[in-house]
Amino acid sequence: MLFPLELLSHLQDHNTSSLGQEYIINDAGLVSPVNGAKSTGHGGSSSSSSSSSSSTPSPTLVTASGSNLQIDLIWDSSVGAAPSGFTTAVIDAAQFYVTNFTSTSGGKVVLYIDVGYGEIAGTALPKGALGESESMGYLTNYATVTSALAKDGFTFTASNEPTTGQFFITSAQAKTLGLISGTSGGSTSVDGYIAFGSGFSWNTYANPNGTNSGTSSSQYDLQAVAQHELSEVMGRIGMEGAIVANKPTYTILDLFDFAGKGTLALSGQGGYFSNNNGATHMGVFNNASSYGGDIADWASYSSPTQSGTLPAGSASNASDSYDAFLAAGGNGVVTTDDLFVDAALGYKFTTAGAALA
Hints:
alpha/beta
């Protein structure tokens, strides 16, 4: 059975920075300001601490030599009911990112991410949701975003750049781009939440190299879904003009979604990814207007090869971890196109990442 990898994605902001007011998207898609976040914000630094529940694993800080990017996985008490191998699969997914990427700012960045099983931030996942994410973040403007991305060598010259309106960036992006302190936050002030459905048979086999194997025809690849959700907290989201606080709102990824050379898509109908102003076609985005799912994911409603991101010679049951839809039996892989997407979001390749790309 084919499932959308998300039924819902919340965006929530810590109101502790000049970057923006606090917002949240609810289950119905209504965007409204909130007072009192689920965590205490990014005003100061604190260390992780384990839950009082004896069945809750202690937080896991994932690091890599040669990278200033770290991911602190804070396990919710619900993880105590997860299947054997669950935490290892999520850790290996995080290891892939810190091994292949570092911060654009050049300073130390720690991403604090709460991990749940069957629930996200205290709310049960809807039936049929393989995974979900909630991301803290900020509202800012085009000039701030493009100036920060210039550090990675990106220039923006499309004919329809959204220079007015506003941009939503996750706090993870704000950290890597040097717009807020890279080490702010902690176990009670996270950058985001990820969670996984409890009503599925999961393949929990994992490794830190971005690919997986061993998923049976009745299973779903947990590591692939973890890669998918982690990358969303890191900023792999699209808004393409959605109205927030009476203003059209965009994301960094929207600046890399093209309808043709020199023209951004900005439609939610499935453009293509390009990191050189539309000249090079690097994968088709999901047509969320027609099929549902997220506009920032790859097209995969008809098949795992629909987006064109899987490399030639891939196994018949391979699927891109950033696909919008996932069928049972698929072995996930983070592809070269996925790596370039992550780099466009504000992260810098390490030597290992550059070798893969």
